[in-house]
Amino acid sequence: MSEPAAVPAPQPTPTPTRAPQQRAGPHRWRFYRVGGLEQPYLETGEDLARLAELDQKLWVALSCPTRGLELDARTLELLDLDHDGRVRAPEVLAALRWCEERLVDLESLLRGGDALPLADIDAAKPAGHVLLGAARQVLFHLGKPEASAVLPADVADLTKLYESTRFNGDGVVPPETADDPEVRQAIADAIACAGGERDRSGKPGIDRKRLDAFFEDLAKLDAWARAGEAADVAFLGEATAAAWEAFHAVKDKVDDHFVRCRLAALDPRAAVAMNRSEPELVALAARDLARSREEVAAFPLARVEPGRPLALGGPVNPAWAAALAALREKVVAPVLGADRGSLAAEEWELLSARFLPYQAWLGAKPAQAVERLGVPRVRALLAMGKAPIEALVARDLALEAEEAAIGDVVRMVHYHRDLALLLRNFVSFADFYDPRRPAVFQAGTLYLDGRSCDLCVRVDDPGAHAVLAAHSRMYLAYCECRRPGGEAMKIAACFTQGDSDYLMVGRNGLFYDRQGRDWDATIVKIVDNPISIRQAFFSPYKKFLRMIEDQVARFAAAKEKASEARLASGAEAGVGAATGGKPPVPAAVDVGKMVGIIAALGVGAGAIGTLLGGLVSGFVGLEPWWAKLVAVLGVLLVISGPSMLIAWLKLRQRNIGPVLDANGWAVNGRVKVNVPLGAALTQAAALPPGARRTLDDPYEDRRARARRRLAWLVLAAVLAGLGLARRAQVWPFAPHAPEAPPPAVSPVVPGR
Could you tell me which residues belong to the region Disordered (predicted)? Predict the structure, then answer.
């Protein structure tokens, strides 16, 4: 292996549909339950080797996208065997089988790490022997022949391996590959005309397909050039091309001249019109003729007269004098004789006929890039032939099988580092349920509204994502994130703790991605769902307070409008009185209606007072003391119970599956986000341990604080008074007076 190779796109030796290797006896799997989800342990190499035997109904996910994950994109590309942008379960199993055929034990994948130790490659296996040789070759060309491991950085840019090599097995040969200067120049010409293919060293080169196309174009151009050397085509020999240029330059103008002469012979009156009128000549003479060359050239070539020949050296249009002189020198003199000073119409037609074969030959010229080389260079290349270049291509391809193993080195380095990480987020969601490390789909942390959300996923289209993600029963805030350089992305943040009182479209926060970079984040869309039981408990009271605030605001607005109307009416009356106008007639007041309204309000207030009095009296009369506590709890349950029940039901159904499915995952299990897990995924602001606080706020509203303290004192006094009243058995705890016994009735004695 004298020359290294770059990373091809090798397919693993086993295909995804191959039957798993049979082993003696069933494998005893270990499962663990976390978040209400049963997940398999992947803790030994045997677990990985027997993963194909595990029922895929027990896998947490069956496929995932290759974009938007916190996993090396090159690893996902290598796993995606059909290049459809998704990694499926069969492709994961194929990767494990591929590794098993080359490693001593699959447990090395669980150890992971950036370095791929050479000792982990099993040289006793045929595929492992080839892989080990390729790994050592990579280290040799990097100047580290004594190294015992290959790092991802060693295979990140393989063009460095080929900068000093001539052949690398890709079938592309740059000009520098050839020792012969003539062959080197031929390769450069082929690249310039047929286009170059990028060599593994990064240099442009030529492959066999482009080489064949180049020489085919050379042969076509040569055949065309030889056809142009025929006697009827090149009737003036090497001077034919120059003669054609001179002829073609004046052909249209000479044709126009003889047509005018024929029209003048047909009708004598046309002679004047054919030579342009006197006003046109006067108008032309008034211009700067040196700067009006195009207008001068538009006039007839020479004086138009019936049957008059074209004088080649006589008085002609000055704009065409030089072209006619070239025609006489290069065409008329060689064909008709050097003593010709004029040209008749019949002679001109003869010259035109002589150039017809040449004109047809020019029209058949192949439109190819090799024309730039010129016919002499084309024939020189054809004489050399493509055999020397083909020999170089064949020599390069001879290393293809040997050098292709370097692609396997790249694959194994990435699998060794990242495959176990993918399994912990594919077969199971171990990383998601582990507070020490985030899952591959968690894009970073959003800080907003005094909370930090760790469950953030990348999204492309918030509107399309929300359609399916809404079924997750989680509160989702879609944010647009931007960086100063113009970089942008979108995320969906899951709020799983706190409340949503101040979460609204337009609020800004700060997002930190997994690389630690900060992004400006703005909420652009919200999917509303309950966040916590605490929020549900206070929700009815907050709604009631908001309703009261709305009613007060409406009442105040109505009063303000009425006040403005009265002021306007008063101002209008004052202006009318000052100007002598009639004062406005006040609106009639329906006294009876007003009395009815006041009476109704009084009745309503009395009824409400009676009701409240009855409730207070009934509450105070409850015995024993704990009955009052039960009554208070009952009232709270009646008010907050329905919203808390609905929130509890939805919180039990929180599931991250729809959020991931909307991103292209195929989540197989119900990955629930219960209340304890939600508290871990969204953290509220809290003072650090050992922090000291100063409660003296210089901007505190001291009057409000005094009012609050007075209210607490009044409440304490009322409670104390109730306690004393209970002890003294006075109102409202006064014992009821025993009812007087009915008066005795004297017995009636009969006959008395």
Answer: 1-25
Residue appearing with tokens 């004192």 = 713
- Statement: residue 639 has pLDDT above 60: yes
User: What DSSP string runs through 529-554?
Assistant: ----HHHHHHHHHHHHHHHHHHHHHH
Q: State the DSSP code for 376.
A: H
Phi, psi at 416, each rounded to 5°: -60, -35
**% of the chain with per-residue pLDDT over 90:** 29
With beta carbons less than 8 A apart as the criterion, state whether 165 and 159 touch: no
Nearest to 337 by CA among 348, 345, 329: 329
pLDDT of residue 435: 83
Which amino acid is residue 47, in one-letter code?
A: D
Give the range among 382-396, 509-523, 580-594 with minimum mean pLDDT.
580-594
Residue-wise pLDDT tens digits, 192-250:
888 888 887 778 888 999 999 899 988 888 888 888 878 778 878 888 888 888 888 88
> What average pLDDT is seen over the chain?
81
495 contacts 477 by C-beta, under 8 angstroms: yes
Upper half-sphere CA count for residue 162 (Cβ side, 13 Å): 28
Kindly indicate the confidence band of residue 526, based on its pLDDT and cuts at 50, 70 and 90.
very high
Domain positions in the chain are 31-156+401-432, 238-343, 441-560+621-685
* DSSP-assigned beta bridge partners for residue 672: 655
Using DSSP, state whether 622 is helix, strand or coil: coil
Q: What is the dihedral of CA 340, 346, 347, 348, to 10 degrees?
A: 110
Q: Rounded CA gap, 576 and 426, in Å?
A: 85
Q: What is the identity of the amino acid at 750?
A: P
Q: Work out the number of other CB atoms within 10 angstroms of the CB of residue 178.
A: 20
For residue 410, count CB atoms less than 10 angstroms from its CB and return exposed for 0-12, middle for 13-18, buried for 19 or more.
buried
> DSSP string spanning 19-73?
PPPP-SS-----EEEETTEEEE---SHHHHHTGGGS-GGGSSEEEEESSSSSS-H
